[in-house]
Amino acid sequence: MGFALALEEAGIPTIPVSTHAFARLAKATAKTGGMPTLRNCYVPQPVVGRTPSELRDYIEGMDPIEKRPFMQGVIDGLTQPLSDEDLKGATFEREMPRFLEPDTEDNLHQLFLENHWTDQLPVVLPTEARVEAMLKGTSHAPDKHVGHMRPTAFREAWAFDVEKVAVNAVMAGARPEYLPVILALTASGVSARSSSTTSWAALSIVNGPIRDEIGMNSGIGTLGPYNHANATIGRAYCLASQNVQGGSVPGDTYMGSVGSNWNYTACFAENEERSPWSPFHVDNGFKASDSTVSVFFGGWYTQSGFGPRETWKEKFIRCLTATDHFSPPLIVMDPIVARAFDDMGYSKQSLIEWCAENAKMPARNYWDDQWTTTLVKPHAVAGVEPFASRLRAAPDEMISIFRPEDINIVVIGGETQGAFKMISGRYRGLGPGTMTGGKLPTVRVDDWR
Amino acid sequence: MADKIKVLDPRGYPPKVVGKRLANRPMSLDGKVLYLIDALFDNADVFMEQLRDWFATNMPSVETRIIKPRESWKDDPEMRATVVAQGDVAIMGVGL
Predict the structure, then answer these.
(1) How many CB atoms lie within 10 A of CB A382?
(2) How far apart are CA A42 and CA A226, in angstroms?
(3) pTM across the whole model
(4) Which of A86, A156, A158 sits opposite B22 (nearest CB)?
(5) How many domains does chain A have?
(6) A323 and A198: one domain?
(7) Do A80 and B40 touch (CB under 8 A)?
(8) CB neighbours of residue A393 within 10 Å
(9) What DSSP designation does A372 have?
(10) Do the domain assignments include residue A133?
(11) What is the ipTM of this complex?
């Protein structure tokens, strides 16, 4: 859509073609691009998996949104003279009042629900007193700019300040002492409410002294609903993402086909004290005394296992190759597992390298993947390694599916079981997940105290 | 009657939208260069091939050229410059 808007601006009549499922999104994007009369045309959903003959039928058939022959819309759109509206576009500003109209508690709860400002669970209403109390959790002024966020790359980015984050933190039930962590998460610029059809989520790991200061859990049940800070920090990040970016509304600003349960809350602390290895943030250039949050974009799958037992290599290979390989794994493991690997002589890095070296699949299977084809293949065609070599491989040749830098390990858990999970979670590298302008998606909490 | 309370708006700050006009349209596509921009989504290349074939069959006076950006979802100024310099009209798809 951005291409189409830019080309029209440059004097080239352009027809953007979308599938009918994206009609509302396409029209909204054209409107916020200042070109509400952009001449979109639509074909039925899906295009993926359709044969050339079926796609030809789309072209020769009806536009399911505009209710006219598809090609008539295309030809007319490219040749029909411009109207007054076409010539002026649409200039507008959207004022966001600081306060909503006063109302009863029941009515305000209903308003928040109807406006899609919640995650459908009850929220704490952000009264002025509650927001003021929340703001005491940081030294920063309420109007300090924190950053921008948007549902996906082609949508407009909305700005937000400290107060907006505090409002959403109140709604999530967070305490003031958690606010620096929530501010750091939102300052990452990574939305926990991606609009992608693939149902992304953002998982976050907290490292450093802040974990103990605010009582986060990295022990028994780390990933579960057993800790107030973990639960409400993750929820606040999710609520803030959907609200400061301008929404996460199905059909408009959210297109995830099946959705993700990680979108409720997904924030955890690393069990640094029981890990035999250096903490995650130290591996990425921070001091152990720094408090940080690190964001992983994923949530597509979870593989799990126990051990390591005698056949752990086969088990790991089964798990790694069962992943959706476009979204590499964040491996979380109990300290029992991490220490066992350590005893076997593996450092964290050498285990990561073993995983990258041994996770292989036939080139045919690797490339027969919608997102690898859409987003990785252009790099391969451009000669970027190792993707170019993967593209040159014969269809039956076994190729590595991850680079070492695609895989991360974090130690969590309470040592009641030697458990591990491989969770879809990209920290950096290719793909639409990181979107941090080349920066690592780790933010110092200390900068937001 | 329940008391009314005042709460803060949780939404961020949207940017100002500046209106932009559409490009002038040609009277017809006869003799024009039409760029078919493959947005790189899965199967978009097949769709564009079919579109090119449709024009060859039904409007042979239109010269079609398929072009692809370097990456999906990212601007490609070089590709845009090619379309602007050498094309008259464009169709982009399939996707956003």
Answers:
(1) 11
(2) 47
(3) 0.93
(4) A86
(5) 2
(6) yes
(7) no
(8) 15
(9) I
(10) yes
(11) 0.94
